[in-house]
């Protein structure tokens, strides 16, 4: 394309003209023999069903060469005319949607028991895989004959009065499970955990294919077809195919070619004249563009300030915003319109970690729901962090009433807004967990660390306790418990309950959700709480009875939001990390309809049960959790 860069000469223009003339006529003439046979043209089972085309074929109506081996669809014979994906071992799944560009197909089980299909199917022997975005877990399936009341891993759609089918995550310890009357059925490797747990049986699951690789061809607007000339049965090629020409289309094509050629000539002449006049101007503009880009790029990375800069920015530490164990926060101004909050770390020796964490993790990330680190100061003994200033302060202010007891009046924001805030926080955490090349685990999610901007958009802040780990790593190593009592996940306190991972943030987020709904602290650390009702447990008991959860008088629309937030919250505070949904899943649950959500198992399995294994699944009294490390 360097022809376009210089000043166009007459030869160049002539060359381009003939080049295009040649390509266009080549393409139009080539339509005949290379075009798709009519028998392979795109088809649907019903008018609003997914389009069926290569690599798929409709088995009964299109010959084998129309599709890639293993990509067979059929239509149901009933009046629904649904599209069916046929997999090996006569597994049949209904198709909701096919995305040819992303190479994904959304499927669901007509009987809302996806696992039944997975048990039959060996997914690694099919051309489809679960997308990497799902959290994949391996499970062992047991067939149990006892009357034991299983909470965890029960596959209710496969169980009945006489026997229960249980899925035990491969990673959990067998001693926690009551398996004395169980027979092992099989292992299922690497499936998304929501397929196992009932709460998601009716939401379509995505499968993706990596072969044939037609995405690039699709993106260019060309057509992927099987290369019938090749000796390989699975060789594809990418063809330019004008949309199904007929004899009437032939003459239209001539006219179109004419129009294209004429406009092309006009454009060429235009470009030529324009180029001659504006080469200099463009060069100047380009230089400016690059300057601007470099400026913006510099702004994206946190700036390093000297201590003198910090003094100037905060106007000699004039306006104090807050005070904590870590240091003091001052309001500052970088320019007329950029207001910042400057956190001066008191004693940098004790906060070396915090400082490195914050600059290291926050300096590289940019998300609407994560507070932005504008700059930092490391000048001699002085350490300071400069954040964007968020005018509405912390979420804590809005969900807890002043006396810490009041319930309803604290919701000055209204439930719709609170739902938006919850979703924003979930998206922020999900972003941190997905990471670019590193996951960021925050480990201190709580209302105090969520700040609100002038539009009440939530931003996650305070990365002093955060941990960075690679994407492949499923657990992080920790020497001491971090976080805040009331939000800290059980495995962070004791490794007996599992590894510390991104699921530990899910737990804290669940506690935060329940506090948003309840407008009160789940645990009041200032009160001797042995006699106090543990609020999340109280909510679970009341919601499970399908009664009004005693939330006072709320409108029906509001009640739906409350119920949704509570159910998602209870899923998040499941005792074992493996039973908690991933943050990505939480986002989808919050965005979805509350009727699609299933009640989670009781996270507070009763303490008075005499059954053996239930003691292992029991939540120890929270008062027994001793390690408290308030971060501020
Ligand atoms: C299903 O297909 C049959 C035959 O192709 C057609 O008559 C009927 O209208 C279709 N039903 C729907 C709901 O599209
Ligand atoms: C599943 O398929 C893979 C690949 O074809 C094969 O190696 C494996 O043994 C199969 N597993 C079962 C349980 O059939
Ligand atoms: C589970 O075991 C019972 C008897 O041991 C048997 O009748 C039943 O078919 C089994 N269920 C499955 C799904 O294999
Ligand atoms: C198949 O190969 C033959 C000879 O190699 C060639 O003449 C023909 O055009 C090819 N057909 C297609 C559809 O590519």
TrEMBL record:
Ranges annotated as spanning the membrane: 254-274
Keyword Signal assigned: yes
The entry's keywords: ATP-binding, Glycoprotein, Kinase, Membrane, Nucleotide-binding, Serine/threonine-protein kinase, Signal, Transferase, Transmembrane, Transmembrane helix
Gene Ontology terms for molecular function: ATP binding; polysaccharide binding; protein serine/threonine kinase activity
GO CC terms: membrane
Signal sequence range: 1-30
Membrane topology: Single-pass type I membrane protein
Top-level taxon in the UniProt lineage: Eukaryota
Record: residues binding ATP: 343
UniProt keyword Manganese, yes or no: no
UniProt domain Protein kinase: residue ranges: 315-605
Places the protein is found: Membrane
Residues covered by region (Disordered): 601-632
Name by which UniProt lists this protein: Rust resistance kinase Lr10 isoform X1
Species annotation: Ziziphus jujuba (Chinese jujube)
């Amino acid at each position: 394309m360097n022809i376009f860069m210089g000043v166009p000469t007459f030869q160049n223009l002539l060359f381009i003209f003939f080049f295009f003339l040649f390509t266009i006529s080549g393409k139009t003439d080539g339509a005949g023999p290379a075009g798709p046979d009519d028998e392979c043209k795109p088809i649907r089972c019903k008018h609003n069903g997914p389009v069926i085309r290569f690599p798929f074929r409709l088995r009964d109506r299109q010959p084998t060469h129309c599709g890639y081996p293993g990509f067979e669809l059929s239509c149901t014979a009933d009046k629904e005319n649904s599209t069916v994906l046929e997999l090996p071992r006569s597994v049949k799944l209904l198709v909701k949607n096919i995305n040819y560009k992303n190479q994904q197909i959304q499927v669901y089980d007509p009987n809302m028991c996806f696992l039944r299909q997975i048990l039959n199917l060996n997914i690694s022997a099919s051309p489809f895989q679960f997308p990497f975005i799902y959290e994949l877990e391996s499970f062992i399936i047991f067939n149990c004959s006892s009357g034991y009341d299983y909470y965890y891993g029960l596959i209710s759609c496969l169980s009945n009065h006489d026997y229960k089918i249980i899925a035990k995550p491969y990673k959990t310890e067998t001693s926690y499970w009551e398996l004395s009357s169980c027979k092992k059925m099989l292992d299922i490797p690497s499936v998304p955990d929501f397929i196992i747990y009932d709460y998601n049986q009716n939401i379509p699951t995505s499968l993706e294919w990596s072969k044939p690789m037609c995405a690039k061809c699709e993106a260019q607007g060309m057509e992927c077809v099987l290369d019938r000339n090749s000796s390989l049965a699975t060789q594809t090629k990418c063809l330019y195919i004008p949309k199904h020409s007929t004899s009437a289309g032939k003459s239209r094509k001539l006219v179109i070619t004419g129009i294209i050629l004429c406009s092309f000539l006009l454009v060429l002449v235009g470009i030529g004249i324009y180029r001659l006049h504006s080469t200099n101007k463009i060069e100047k503009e380009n230089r400016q563009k690059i300057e601007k880009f470099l400026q913006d790029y510099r702004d994206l990375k946190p700036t390093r300030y000297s201590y003198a800069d910090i003094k100037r920015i905060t106007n000699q530490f004039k306006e104090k915003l807050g005070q904590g164990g870590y240091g003091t926060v001052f309001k500052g101004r970088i320019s007329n319109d950029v207001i910042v909050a400057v956190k001066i770390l008191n004693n940098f020796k004790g906060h070396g970690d915090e400082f490195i964490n914050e600059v290291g993790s926050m300096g590289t990330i940019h998300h609407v729901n994560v507070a932005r680190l504008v700059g930092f100061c490391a000048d001699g003994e002085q350490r300071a962090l400069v954040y964007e200033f968020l005018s509405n302060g912390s979420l804590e202010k809005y969900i807890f009433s002043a006396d810490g007891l009041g319930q309803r009046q604290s919701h000055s924001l209204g439930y719709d807004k609170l739902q938006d805030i919850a979703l924003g926080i979930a998206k922020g955490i999900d972003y941190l967990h997905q990471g670019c090349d590193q996951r960021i685990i925050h480990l201190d999610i709580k209302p105090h660390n969520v700040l609100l901007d002038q539009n009440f958009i939530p931003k996650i802040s305070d990365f002093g306790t955060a941990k960075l780990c690679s994407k492949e790593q499923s657990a992080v190593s920790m020497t001491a418990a971090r976080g805040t009592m009331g939000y800290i996940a059980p495995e962070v306190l004791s490794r007996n309950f599992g590894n510390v991972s991104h699921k530990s943030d899910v737990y804290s987020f669940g506690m935060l959700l329940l506090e948003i709904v309840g407008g009160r602290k789940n645990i009041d650390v200032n009160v001797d709480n042995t006699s106090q009702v543990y609020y999340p447990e109280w909510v679970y008991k009341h919601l499970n009875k399908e009664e009004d959860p005693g939330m006072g008088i709320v409108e029906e629309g509001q009640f739906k939001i409350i119920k949704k937030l509570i159910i998602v919250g209870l899923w998040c505070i499941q005792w074992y990390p493996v039973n908690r949904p991933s943050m990505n899943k939480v986002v989808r649950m919050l965005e979805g309809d509350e009727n699609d959500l299933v009640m989670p198992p009781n996270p507070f399995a009763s303490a008075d049960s005499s059954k053996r294994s239930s003691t292992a699944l029991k939540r120890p009294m929270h008062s027994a959790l001793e390690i408290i490390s308030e971060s501020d």
